[in-house]
Every structure is written in structure tokens, then in C-alpha cells.
Specification:
The structure holds 2 protein chains of 2 kinds.
Chain A (H helix, E strand, L loop, with lengths): L5 H28 L5 H28 L34 E2 L2 E2 H19 L9 H24 L12 H6 L7 H19 L15 H20 L7 H29 L4 H18 L5 H18 L2 H5 L7 H19 L18 H32 L5 H6 L1 H6 L8 H4 L10 H7 L4 H5 L2
Antiparallel strand pairs in A: 1-2
Chain B lengths: L1 E7 L4 H10 L6 E7 L6 E5 L2 E5 L2 E10 L4 H12 L7 E7 L17
Antiparallel strand pairs in B: 1-5, 1-6, 2-5, 3-4
Helix pairs in contact in B: 1-2
Classes of the chains: A mainly alpha, B alpha+beta.
Chain lengths: 459, 112
């Protein structure tokens, strides 16, 4: 078929799988950082985002993000590809092969690839509300947030106009012409600003910051960081939408900046705290990945090193802000994703190398402030939109169904209360027919009536 | 009969055990416990946040012995567990009314 490139398609199929893997990876990254009594809920917030946002994306999300613009570059037409209408058509076998394409790849591959971005952006927010958000409220919040914040913002940033087809895209990508290759604004600034707003509305965990809330499983955090980095090659190099030199360029920068950021974070810890930590190494990796996300097509290798070091050092310092200002962004979504996203997006204005695929000169390359102001406007627009809308959504959900567990349930542990499970069964007493478990409350006794009769006899 | 309870550093357990075997102590009970004495805890740092860990891991060893053997057993434990640094632990002795072997019903020193 004319226009289809099998190499591009193969890479984009693989990239889609890579980016989807990032969300379970994020579940491990976040899950290891919480206390053992809430690891399952933490991982469930990520996993449930896959289920929920995946379906919303098919129903109308893709259409809102990538449908023809309905005006001002603000929103795609939700009715255009409702339920992927018009995309599940064509003949796939025989002599006359024909089906919708998006560039050089099947349109459905592009739909799937972009679905994984919507999913992980929602999942990223959950790190701010560890241990205390009702699971049902999380799902309702996540659905509304994806609908009114992510889908439109993805349109602003990722939907490029196409003169051949006459399709009009979003304002940040086309009118403002800010560079955001893979989602520094739409994904990371967006999720980070939302995390800040949600953390402010839901309030601090009981005992924070007085009580120590140590990560219960740092090897999980390492595993998660590894999966995230691996998947991020799909995120960044996949955003080239083809198997080509731009993908290779993005992939290399995704290695370079991430290495530099890890070292930057570790050196900061060594100087400030006296010891470099494993959590710091894992966090530095993610900070570097975040910062190189918007900039991986527009900076040189040396630029990527500088950008990575800055991200590692600044994010390592930024995670302390919550203690100074007193907001419980439990797993530092603000310090890593909002701050890292801002660094990556805005530094493009300084470090953009005209020899890179983006072909734009930043301030340090004689381009003046032309690209810099575009980057700043794009970053601030997403930050403010996301923060304000998220704050309002959170207040609405709070008013209708409440956001957080009551104090006793939070102290008991959200896994047991919300999911009727516990992650680990290491204690001898607990594994003996129910001995050692707290007295059942109304909620768990209701669940217990579903247990088969023979199971309850043993206890 | 006396109950000798020793709270020692976890890595001292192997030495204490082999020392007690040479004193013909025929059994012991061991548990993982947490606590602090003069040593207090230690500080851990996560993403720049300091967490003071008050309760440090220790091992509790309990041995019931005949009155005459108490001093030897206590000395043996102390010798095996001592590193000379703060946090080596404590040993204390309490009187025991009686002991029953569950399998046979034997009582007193016979049950040890």
C-alpha cells in the first residue's frame, strides 16, 4: 500500500509496548517508596489508570486529542473519531489493501501509541496522594482529569496541523511553535501541576512530616526505575513516529541526559547529606528522563549532559520544597516531574542546537530569545491550566464523594481497607488462620460474607 | 532454676550459641527484637529527608539453667557478645518457679 512504511510500523508497534510497560514500571517505582501497608493501593492507582484511561481513549479521548480542531487550537472534535469511528475500516488482505494511515504507519498504531501516553500521565499523579485516597474517588478523579485536562492538552501539544489533509492541530504545537518532542509539557508539567493541586486539596498524610515514612522496598524502586528507563526509549525515540535518524538521535540523548542526571543527584546527596543513596540514583534517573523528554530532538550530546546534570541537581534540591512549604506531595511528583519538566522544556530555549533534528537555535547558539519565550509560554500555559482545573476537579469530587479515608482506616493501612488484601505474609502468626488480624470492621465483614463456607470453618 | 535473658547484636548470635554449647546448655529460645538503650538509634536519609530510627534490631536469647550454672553461662554470653562498642546489649537473670517438659510431663531440673 502506498505510504505505509513497514520499518516505521514495526518500530511504532514496539514503542507502544515499551511505553505501556512504563506504567507497571511506575507502579513498582512508586510502590517501593510507600510503607508496606499501602503498596498494593499505590500500584493499583497506576494499574487502574491503564484500564480506565485506555477505554476513555478509545471512546472519545483520541478524538478530542487528535480530531480536527474545533477552534483556536484548543480542542479536537470529539465526534470525529468517537469509538475510533472511521479507523476500524479497510481491507487488510487480498490485492486491494487499504486502511487509514497516520503518516507512514497505520492510524490504529498511532492511536495505541498515544493511548499509552494518556495512561502514564494520569498514573504519574497518583504519587502525590499515597496512603490516603479512596480508590473509588481516585477512579472518578482520574476519569474526569483525563477528559478535561489531558485530552485537550495533548491536542495543544501533540496534534500537528497537516496542510495536505487540511487537518488543524493544537495551538502550542502549531501557532506557538514551542518544542516539546515527547511530552515535557503535556505529560510531565501537566501531571506535576495536577499532583500539586490534588495534594493541596486532599491534605497531608496522618503524622506527616513528624513520623518517619520510610520506603518499604528500595529494590522495587530500582526495578521500577529500570523499567521506566527501558520503556522511555519507546516514549522518546518512538515520538519520532518512525524508525529513522530522529529516533536514533532521541534515543541517544535519552541515554546521555539520564546518566548525567543520576550522577548530578548522587553528587548533590553526597555534598548535602554525606551519603549517596540508592533512592537518589533511581530518582536521578527519572529526573533525567523527564528533562530530556521535551528536548531529546533539539539538543546536542554535550547539551544533553548539561541539561541532565542541571535536572539531577535541581530536582534533588526541589524534593525538599514540600517540607519547607508544608504540602505532602508524598512521592515527589512535583519535585521530579513538574520541576524536571520545566527544566527540560525551558532549557530548550537556551540549549537548542540548530544541527539537531529540530533545527532550532537557542539563546546559546545565537538564536536570541525567540525560542525561549515560546518554551516559557508553553510551559506556563500547561502548568496554570492543569493546576487550576485539577484544583476544581478535586474540590468537586471531594464535595460529592470525599477524597480520603477516615483516620482510623488510614492508620490501619489502605490496602486492607480498600482492597481487602495485604501485600506480604511474612509473619508466622498472620498466616495462621486469621490470628493476628485486627477486629473486622463493618466494611470487611461485608466482604467476608463472600468467602466460601469451607474457608471460614478453618478459622 | 534461673532464666538468663540476653539482648545482643544480631551478628553475635553465632558466637553466643557455640559458647553456650560448650557450657552444656541443651536448648535456647531466640527472637528478633527491636529496641534501644544508651546507643539510641541511627539516622537514615531518603530524598534529603532525615528519618531517625529509634529501634535498632537486636536478638533476644533466652536460656533456662540450673542455679549453679548461672554465673558461667552469663560470663560466657557476655564474653561472646562483647565488642567494646556502644550497643553490645544487656544480660539479666530472673528466678524461675518451675519448668515442665510438654512431651513427658517431667518437672523442674529434669525438664531442662
Amino acid at each position: 500500500m502506498d505510504g505505509l512504511d513497514t520499518g516505521d510500523t514495526a518500530w511504532m508497534l514496539a514503542s507502544t509496548a515499551l511505553v505501556l510497560l512504563m506504567t507497571p514500571g511506575l507502579a513498582f517505582f512508586y510502590g517501593g517508596m510507600v510503607r508496606s501497608k499501602s503498596v498494593l493501593n499505590m500500584m493499583m492507582m497506576s494499574l487502574s489508570a491503564i484500564g480506565l484511561v485506555g477505554i476513555l481513549w478509545v471512546l472519545y479521548g483520541y478524538s478530542v486529542a487528535f480530531g480536527n480542531d474545533v477552534g483556536g487550537g484548543l480542542l479536537g472534535n470529539p465526534a470525529e473519531a468517537w469509538g475510533l469511528k472511521g479507523l476500524f475500516v479497510g481491507s487488510y488482505t487480498g490485492d486491494e489493501i487499504s486502511y487509514p494511515l497516520s503518516g507512514t504507519i497505520p492510524a490504529l498504531v498511532f492511536v495505541g501509541f498515544q493511548a499509552t501516553f494518556a495512561i502514564i500521565t494520569v498514573a504519574l499523579i497518583s504519587g502525590a496522594v499515597a496512603d490516603r485516597m479512596k480508590f473509588g474517588s481516585w477512579l472518578v478523579f482520574a476519569g474526569i482529569w483525563a477528559t478535561v485536562v489531558y485530552f485537550p492538552v495533548a491536542h495543544w501539544v501533540f496534534a500537528f496541523s497537516n496542510d495536505d489533509t487540511g487537518v488543524v492541530g493544537g495551538w502550542i504545537a502549531n501557532d506557538l511553535a514551542a518544542i516539546d518532542f515527547a511530552g515535557g509539557t503535556a505529560v510531565h508539567i501537566n501531571a506535576g501541576a495536577a499532583a500539586l493541586a490534588l495534594a493541596l486539596v486532599i491534605g497531608k498524610r496522618l503524622g506527616w512530616p513528624r513520623e518517619p515514612m520510610r520506603p518499604h522496598n528500595l529494590p522495587f524502586v530500582m526495578l521500577g526505575a529500570g523499567l521506566l528507563w527501558f520503556g522511555w526509549f519507546g516514549f522518546n525515540a518512538g515520538s519520532a513516529l518512525g524508525a529513522n535518524g530522529i529516533a536514533g538521535f532521541a534515543m541517544m540523548n535519552t541515554i546521555i541526559a539520564t546518566c548525567a542526571a543520576m550522577l548530578g543527584w548522587l553528587v548533590t546527596e553526597k555534598v548535602r547529606d554525606g551519603k549517596p543513596t540508592s533512592l537518589g540514583a533511581a530518582s536521578g534517573v527519572v529526573a533525567g528522563l523527564v528533562a530530556i523528554t521535551p528536548s531529546c530532538s533539539s539538543v546536542s550530546p554535550l547539551g544533553a549532559i548539561l541539561l541532565g546534570v542541571i535536572a539531577g541537581v535541581v530536582c534533588a534540591l526541589a524534593v525538599g520544597l514540600k517540607f519547607r512549604f508544608g504540602y505532602d506531595d508524598s512521592l515527589d511528583v512535583v519535585g521530579v516531574h513538574l520541576v524536571g519538566g520545566l527544566i527540560g522544556t525551558i532549557l530548550i530555549g537556551f540549549l537548542a542546537d540548530p544541527g539537531s533534528p529540530a533545527g532550532v537555535a537557542g539563546l546559546f547558539y545565537g538564536g536570541g530569545v525567540d525560542q525561549l519565550w515560546r518554551q516559557v509560554v508553553g510551559a506556563l500555559a500547561v502548568l496554570i491550566y492543569s493546576f487550576v482545573l485539577t484544583y476544581v476537579i478535586a474540590l468537586i469530587v471531594k464535595a460529592i464523594m470525599g477524597l480520603r479515608l477516615d483516620g482510623e482506616d488510614e492508620a490501619t493501612g489502605i490496602d486492607e481497607v480498600e482492597n481487602a488484601e495485604s501485600a506480604y505474609d511474612f509473619s508466622t502468626l498472620r498466616s495462621l488462620s486469621g490470628a493476628g488480624t485486627p477486629r473486622p470492621d463493618a466494611a470487611t465483614s461485608a466482604a467476608a460474607t463472600h468467602v466460601p463456607a469451607h474457608a471460614s470453618k478453618e478459622s | 532454676m534461673m532464666l538468663v535473658t540476653a539482648i545482643v547484636k544480631p551478628f553475635a548470635l553465632a558466637e553466643v550459641r557455640s559458647g553456650l554449647e560448650q557450657h552444656s546448655v541443651s536448648g535456647m529460645t531466640v527472637g528478633e527484637v527491636s529496641g534501644y538503650g544508651r546507643q539510641r538509634g541511627h539516622t537514615e536519609v531518603y530524598r534529603g529527608g532525615d528519618y531517625h530510627v529509634d529501634f535498632v534490631p537486636k536478638v533476644r536469647i533466652e536460656v533456662v539453667v540450673d542455679d549453679g550454672a548461672v554465673d558461667g553461662v552469663v560470663d560466657c554470653v557476655v564474653q561472646a557478645a562483647r565488642t567494646g562498642k556502644i550497643g553490645d546489649g544487656k544480660v539479666w537473670v530472673t528466678p524461675v518457679e518451675t519448668v515442665v517438659r510438654v512431651r513427658t510431663g517431667e518437672r523442674g531440673a529434669e525438664a531442662l
